Amino acid sequence: MSTAVSDRSPIDVTSWIGAYPFRELPHPDPDVLARVLAREGCAGAWVGHLPGAFYRDPVPSNRALYAAVERWPQVLLPAPIVRPDWPGWQDMLRDAISAGAPSVRAYPAQWGLGPGHPALSELAYACGEAGVVLHVTVRFEDLRQRHPLDTAGDVPAATLRGLARLPGSRCHVVVAGAGRDLIEETHWGLTEAEQQRVFYDFGWVWGPPEDHFAHLVRTLGPSRLTWSSWWPLRLTQQSQALIELLPAGDAPANGAADFADGRAIAMAATRQIPADAARMTPREPRVGETY
Question: pTM of the full predicted structure?
Answer without folding.
Answer: 0.91
